[in-house]
Every structure is written in C-alpha cells, then in structure tokens.
Amino acid sequence: MVHFKDDTMLLEAIGKFTQCLSQWNLNYNTMIENCNSYFIQCMNSFIKNDIKRVKDSRRNFHKNSEDVGTAFSRNAQVPKSKLGECEEAASNLVISRNNFKKASIDYLFEVNIIQYKKRTEVLNCLLSHLKGHQSFIVQTNSTFNDLNPYIQQISASLQTLQNEAASTRQQLRNESNTVLNLAMSSSVDDHRMSTSTSSQIDVYPNEECMEGYLYKRTTKTFKSWVRRWFIVDNNQLMYCSQHKSREGAVIMERDLRLCNVVPFQDTDRRFCFQIISPHRTHLLQADNEKDCQKWVAFIQETAKKAYNRMNSTPSCIKVGCISADLMASSCSPLRCVSTKSPPSATSNLLPKIPSHVKSILTISGNDVCCDCGHPDPRWASFNLGVTLCIECSGIHRSFGVHKSKVKSVTLDAWEPDQVRVMEQLGNDIARRIFELFVCEDGDVCMNDAGTKIVKATPNCSREVREEWVTAKYLKRSFVRRSNSQNHPTMPSTPQLKNAVKMNDGADAYGNDYWLNQDADDSEAASKLLCRAAEVGNLPGMLKALALGADVNFKNTEDSDKTPLIYSLTTGLNAPVEFMLLNGSKVDVPDADKKTPLHHAAILGNAGQICLLLKRKANQHLKDINGNDALSIAVENADANVVTILRLARLNEEMKGSDGGFDNPSDDMFAEVFKDFSAIPSSSVDGASSTRSSICTLSSTTTTFQ
Ligand SMILES: [Zn+2]
To answer: In principle, which of 30, 83, 440, 600 could form an S-S bond with 608, CB 3.0–4.6 Å?
Structure first.
C-alpha cells in the first residue's frame, strides 16, 4: 500500500477487491462450519440410537438361540422312568422355542429397519451438505454481481494501461539501443569516447569542475577500496557516496595548490594515481587509463590556475587589517553543504579571528613571505619562527619536519608555546640571520662558495625558489662570510652569568648583541647556543643553530649540560619549546645523570615539565643519587609538579593496561597540559591560577586512585 500511496485508482481497486474477497472468505468458512456440525450431529444420532438397537436385538437373538439349545438337551436327557420331569422338560422346550421365534423376528425387523434408515440418513446428510454449498454459491454470486460493474471498469482501464506500457517499453528499447550503438561505436574510436555519453566523467563547459567515479583506498592498514563520486571544484577535491549528490560531500583536500598529483605504478591495481598533500597521501583509481590521465591532468591544471589566480589577485592581508577573506578561510566548515553557495555567505558570518593569527601576522616582517617577499603569507615554519607563502612553504615541507615544521597560520591549531616562539622570532630576525651575507647584485646573489644564486621572488619558477630556499636554510650559504672577520668579541661565560644575575633572569644583551655573534666552528656555535639558551634569547639561539650548533651539545666545561638544560633555567616555556622543536633529545642527561626533567623538577616549573612530558620524557630515569624526578619533587614538597608527574604515571599505566587504544585518560592528560601551557610561565598571575588548576587536578586524580 505504501508503494501506491499516490495512485488513487489502484488504492480503490485494492480496497474493493479486498472487501469482496474477505466477504467470500467469511461465507465459505461459515458454510464449512455449518456443514460439518450438521453431518456430525446426524452420524452421532445414527450410531448412538439406531445401530445400538440392532446390536441389542442381535444379543437377545443369540441368547434365546442358546436357551433353545439348552432346552433341547435337557428334554433329551430326561429318563423315561420320571414322567413328571418329562412333562416339565417338554413344556420348557415349548416356551424356549416361542421366545426364540420372537427374538428372531425382532432381530430381523431391526436389521431391515436399519437397512432402510441407512439410505435415508446418508442421503439426508449429503443433501444438507449440498444445500449449504448451494446457499454459499448464491451468496458469493450476489457479492460478485454487485462488484461486476466495477470489475468491468477496471478491466477496461487495465487494457488502456497495458497498451501504454507496451508503447513506452518499445520507446525505451529504441532509446537504449541507440545509446548502446553509440557506446559500442565510440569505444572503438578513442577520440570519440571522450565526448560520448557513456563516459563516467563529467567535465563542465567552463572546465572549472570535474566529476566522476573513482576507487579510493580507505586506509593503509586494511587496503580496501571503495567506489565514490569525486568532485574537483573550486580548487578543492571532495567525494560523496552517491552520484551527483553533493549533500554531505566530504572534502578530501581543501586546497589543491598544496597537492602534488602523480600517476602511481607501485601497486597491483591499474589506472592508479596519487594525490600527495602536506598531511596525507591519497591513492585513487580510475576506470581506465584515459580517465586516469584525464583526472591527473585536470587536477594539475586546476592547481596551476588557482595558483596563477592567487598571484594576479592583489594581497588581501594587510598587517593590522585582517581581511574578510582571511576570516572565511580560517573558519570555513569541514563539511561542505553546497559548494555553489556564494563566497559572501561565509564572509557575512564575520567569525572571530583566532588571536594567534593576529599575533603571528603582526610581528615585524611577517606581512610578507620570509623567502620570496610574497605579500600574502599564510603559512609558517614554527621551529624557524617565520611566515611563508604557499609556494615557499612547499619547499620547506620537502626538507622534512626535522629541518622545518610547516603549518597553516589560519587553518591549523596552534599551541600557546608555539605562538610564543613565533612572537620572539619573525621574518626580520630570520633574514638578519639567514641572509646576513647576501651580496646583492640585482636579483643575483653569491653564496659562500662564490656560486651565483638567484634570489626568489613572488612569481619566480619553482626551480629558482627551491635553489634559493635550500641555499638559505639547508646549506646556510649566507650566514657567515667565508673568511669571517671583525665580529664583536664574545664575553666569557662568567661575565655572562654575572650579567644574567644582575638582571634577574632577563636577557642582559638584547637581540642586536646576539645577532652580531659569530662562531668559527660547530663547538663555538654550540657554546653560543648554550649561552643564548641560558638567557632564553630565541634570536640568539636561532643564530647559533644557523652557525652550525649541535642541539644536543654537552658542555664539558659545565657538567655536560645541554642547551635544553640551559633553556630550563630561564623559567620560561618558549626557549624550552624552541629547543624541543629544533630537535633537542628530551632525555639527554648531564654529568650528574640529571635529565632535563630532573632539572625542571628541581626548578619546580610545572609548565616546563608539561612540555617535556608531552615529548614523552622518561620520568623513571634516576640521577647519580638514585632520585627520579618525582622523588625530587616530593622532597621539595612541590604539589604542582608532584601532581603532574603522578598524573603522567597514571596515564602511562592506563595505557599499558588497555593496550593504549582509546584511552580516556589521554584526553584528560592533554587538557591538563593545555591548562599549564596556556599560563604564561613568567606572569605573576600565572602562579596563582596554576595553583587553582592544580587543586581541581588533585581532586580529579583522587577519583582515579
Ligand atoms: Zn614565498
């Protein structure tokens, strides 16, 4: 019924026919019931009364027959001498014979009666049975007679409908034959196939959008493939499960400019291609080689067009005046309801700009790309503390995360300590370090070996850009003169220590001092790194790294302390985060076998402990006195540090007990870290709020124990 809810004719017919057949069914059941009960009644009375009477008379007949036999015997046995007995026996014999005659006649009578009655009773039963059927048929007939006009009407309609269906079928058959012929002929001719209707790919006339089915490999682990409808539109790649239903389409890649598309041969499947994005790699499969080439070419072309469009559009980010475009891009929803909605719709929402976006983009020099000067940097290398355009960020990414950690300023999440690192560096400082000895001659510079290198510009080719960025950061060609001279003399360590003490933790020298430092070899650079780390001067630390400092250097003149250990003494998070971002190993101990975690525990700095634990610092390591970080904190009665270390242990144990999957304590642990890193370690207010959050923490942990 549900399937015909809009078809009134069919619904009416079903209703009437159902009613009629129900009536028929009811009559039939009543008739059968009546017939059965009457038949049983007749038979019961016949068996119980009539047959019983016959049986009784037969029994009587047999009894009298025996009695006559007995009377004959007695009569025969009487001795001649006893005359009295002879007479008695003779009279008994006469009585018995009379009784026997009577019983015989009775029996015969009953048998005859039953013979007649048998016929009438059976006939009677049959007749009433037939009458029952007859009345049922009459009733049914009248029911169907009532329905007859309607049946005729439906029959006529049915004929019309059948004729219509036949003609439609013929029409469809003709159409499908035409399509089939077209498809068959076009598959012979490759050229025509691209325009044929059988092609599974739709390219829209303006060539801004392409859609079609592709197989998508779900995960690397299970390697199963699913067929999805893919759409390339508006410089984005998305897919949905159903053909042409963009409702709920999943965006696979938000910005195809960041992606590299290449045919992929290293698989058992044919017609595969790979989309390599900054964060993931997608493996897709087309239906045939031609489609595969088409997809690869189209995506490459889309990315190129989008890139050119971006270059021709004037910059929309100005320092201090963040454009609506930026806001839209920083808050665009993950799920795309309709990609055709006008861009102004999102801009009108006027979302709140994340505070980190403003603080990163307003740092001196960060309004243009650090490497090519493109005026629209939305990417950043957060271990180098610079902002980058999308093209330069791609080159940084190709270095690997151990050299340059790249993420989007607007689209990615930023941790407070990462923002603090960015805030203390910036493009101006980075250029003073990495482009210090650029000998400018137009756009051509010389590296330290005297080779000419063309400086990257916003619109330069990828080759030029790659060579420039590689020379600048990887080869560090412009950091020092080949024959360095006239650099300011470095103060010795004791001098510096005094200066630090006098200024109560503040950097006594300022950025200019540190940026003018030089080091002839790696050891000197490493010592420079230690000194800059000790006062927490990030420009100085970056300069030392550029000069070739070893991030895990052990200062043998000062108990094998590492730059990371020095950075802890500042009491600040940013220098520690900077060292960790730039590859400091988290557990390297000093001569007393004290790890950075030991030092942080001694200093009682909860924020720094969180940073180290986040990098999976091992808190079970013991120093030369056999103490681990927790026992030091317990000895110091440092409630904050004890709580955090215990919480981390609890987290480890819970991970160990359930295999580390879906551990709810992980989220809580991350929240705690967030609490601590959100508090500026140097702020006075920070101390009290740290204490209050520790109170809530302690109550949380007690519920676990
Ligand atoms: Zn750039």
So the answer is: 600
